[in-house]
Design brief:
The complex is a heterodimer of chains A (389) and B (186).
Chain A lengths: L2 H17 L5 H5 L5 H12 L1 H12 L3 H11 L9 H27 L12 E7 L5 E5 L4 E2 L3 E3 L3 E4 L17 E6 L3 E6 L5 E4 L3 E6 L8 E13 L11 E5 L2 E5 L3 E6 L5 E8 L2 E4 L4 E4 L3 E6 L5 E5 L2 H5 L5 E8 H12 L2 E4 L8 E7 L4 H11 L4 E4 L2 E4 L1
Parallel strand pairs in A: 1-7, 5-7, 10-11, 20-23
Antiparallel strand pairs in A: 1-2, 1-6, 3-4, 4-5, 6-9, 7-8, 8-10, 9-10, 10-13, 11-12, 12-15, 13-14, 14-17, 15-16, 17-18, 19-21, 22-23
Chain B lengths: L10 H23 L2 H17 L6 H22 L1 H7 L3 H8 L1 H22 L3 H11 L4 H8 L3 H31 L4
Helix pairs in contact in B: 1-2, 1-3, 1-6, 2-3, 3-9, 7-9, 8-9
Classes of the chains: A alpha+beta (389), B mainly alpha (186).
Chain lengths: 389, 186
């Protein structure tokens, strides 16, 4: 098949011409095809009906699903463990044993410490202005500037005097940052009326005004946020874009949650309403309500799966919803809201799964009691550390 | 194509390879079979064979010619198979057309060029992408402006942004293909 090389090169030239808004001269001049075939090719690349037909067919092909089918037919050889792996495993085992012995003596020799009471997190954030100046926003602290005002549980951007809705052309855009500590949460209404709920241990970068005619860009530097995006149709069709570590989400107007914690190697985007596209530079996926995209930071993989939206966005509605969630994940979530450290005395307890809905306004003790009552696990709380036994 | 102990295709690389080529090959197979369900099955068979026979590739052209030719042969075999002849027979003239080299090359060009165009457009911001899509359909700037409800100047600006952004991405696309092509020799 010596022709294939020529065919691939020709395809690239045709694609480049079309993308560059030029006539596909290479197709017109080639001797590989008859006039009729040339017409056929051009029609399939440029005719609206043909393009739509192709897209519709593509929608019926699900590589993920078919990969699973293929995978079930494949025989995958089991790799032999190399000697160093045995050695590594032995060292690991030894390490575990010693730490267990060490811990046992540690725990049994000391008196049990009385349970400390830790209350729920509150509305609080640090606002960083363009010049680097910091303002603490919390209950009872009223803040007011030319661009924004805060009553202590939310901050609202927009025209304070009614005459600054749109920035003038060429004006330098000022950015603000909102940093939420562990044990905090906050709500910000951006100048385009997009609402953002920020969870504990999160940081959002956003412009004080959005430039007209450009995509509305914000950056979730880390943490978790729920976006209720003001539709593009109200903003001259400007899309709304959220950058995070390793991914870009692009939307026209919709509601979705992004989870991009610094200590997690995955960025999860869950869609509640509408439609968004998620890309990580090389791959791009469109997700629909009820779906979640997962970007693996290290491998660059991008996967889409179905999830329980209620569970993912419960935090925004003042709830914890755990649907068959492992104790390890549950305690990670609790640690951010109650600002505590978690230690597992018994690592096997990490995989126990729990289900239930709990209120975020209760003290951590109340929540832990409820989990304890279901069984097989007990908690000890001292200072800022939760020990799981 | 040979079996050797040094074979280095990992499951992960194989999966990436599958994701990259599976959809266009199904669309390509469908041009022969006119049955998307069946196309998917036959293309999976081709991929299974690559894994089982530990087929190694040298370069983009080698990969693509192997995939397209294998899928075509599989489709033609199926069309000519007894089972197919009894249930859904095609006339000799149609079979002859489908067996022709011109038909094959024509469909390869459509898949290859469409793939590049779609990938490139998908990297653009929404408004930019819409302008390029409409411009591809031979709409004039004025027509695009009307269709999108924006000014002609906006269309022009978006086009400029698009072409500026597409240049390096097209180059990157070549590099991506090259790296996929190289794993066989790693």
């Amino acid at each position: 098949m010596s022709n294939i090389k020529e065919i691939i090169a020709l395809s690239k030239r045709i694609a480049a011409s079309l993308l560059g808004d030029k006539k596909p001269i290479s197709l017109e001049e080639t001797e590989l095809f008859s006039e009729l075939d040339k017409q056929y090719i051009l029609e399939h690349l440029t005719d609206e009906r043909r393009i739509r037909e192709r897209l519709e067919q593509k929608e019926h092909i699900n590589p993920e699903e078919d990969w699973k089918k293929l995978r079930s037919k494949m025989e995958v050889p089991v790799r032999k463990l190399r000697l160093w792996r045995y050695a590594a495993a032995a060292v690991l085992l030894l390490g575990l044993t010693t730490s267990y012995i060490f811990r046992d003596t540690l725990f049994y020799s000391s008196e049990p410490t009385p349970m400390v009471r830790i209350e729920a997190g509150t509305d609080k954030a640090t606002l960083t202005l363009e010049g680097g100046e910091e303002v603490v926003l919390e209950k009872g602290a009223v803040y007011q500037s030319e661009n924004a005002r805060s009553n202590g549980d939310r901050i609202v951007y927009g025209e304070m005097s009614g005459d600054r809705e749109v920035p003038t052309e060429g004006e330098e855009i000022a950015y603000n940052y909102l940093t939420i500590p562990r044990g905090g949460q906050f709500y910000v209404l951006l100048s385009d009326s997009t609402g953002v709920w920020l969870n504990s241990e999160s940081r959002l970068k956003y412009p004080v005004h959005f430039a007209k005619g450009e995509p509305r860009e914000v950056e979730l530097e880390y943490g978790e946020a729920y976006f209720d995006v003001s539709p593009a149709s109200k903003h001259g069709n400007s899309t709304f874009q959220v950058k995070t570590r390793g991914q870009l989400v692009e939307v026209l107007g919709t509601e979705f949650n992004i989870k991009a914690y610094r200590d997690e190697e995955r960025v999860k985007t869950t869609l509640a309403e509408g439609k968004v596209t998620v890309s990580n530079g090389t791959l791009k996926e469109t997700i629909t309500p009820g779906q979640q995209s997962v970007v693996e930071i290290t491998t660059g993989a991008l996967e889409v799966r179905n999830v329980s939206v209620a569970q993912e966005i419960a935090w925004k509605n003042g709830m914890f919803i755990f649907d068959n969630m492992s104790l390890e994940r549950i305690t990670t979530i609790l640690s951010r809201w109650y600002n505590i450290e978690v230690k597992f005395e018994d690592d096997t307890k990490k995989d126990i799964v729990f289900s239930g809905a709990l209120s975020r306004s209760e003290s951590v003790n109340t929540l832990l009691n409820k989990i304890e009552r279901i069984g097989c696990v007990s908690f000890q709380l001292s200072e800022k550390t939760l020990i799981v036994k | 194509m040979h079996k050797s102990g040094k074979y280095s295709l990992s499951l992960k690389k194989y999966r990436d390879f599958f994701v990259e080529f599976y959809t266009p090959l199904c669309l390509f197979a469908n041009k022969y079979l006119d049955n998307l369900e069946l196309s998917r099955d036959l293309v999976q068979d081709v991929f299974l064979k690559i894994w089982e026979d530990k087929i190694e590739f040298r370069g983009e052209e080698h990969i693509k010619s192997f995939l397209y030719v294998s899928v075509r042969n599989k489709c033609l075999d199926h069309l000519k198979s007894k089972r197919h002849l009894t249930t859904d027979a095609l006339d000799d003239k149609t079979i002859e057309k489908l067996e022709g080299e011109a038909y094959f090359l024509r469909e390869v060009v459509v898949q290859e060029a469409s793939g590049i165009v779609e990938k490139a457009i998908n990297t653009l911001p929404e408004q930019c992408a819409r302008v390029v899509r409409l411009s591809l359909q031979s709409l004039t700037n004025a027509e695009i402006a009307e269709e999108m409800g924006v000014s002609i100047n906006t269309v022009k600006t978006q086009k400029k942004i698009a072409y500026k952004r597409l240049r390096p991405l097209l180059d990157k696309y070549y590099i991506l293909l090259l790296s996929i092509a190289l794993w066989g020799n790693a």
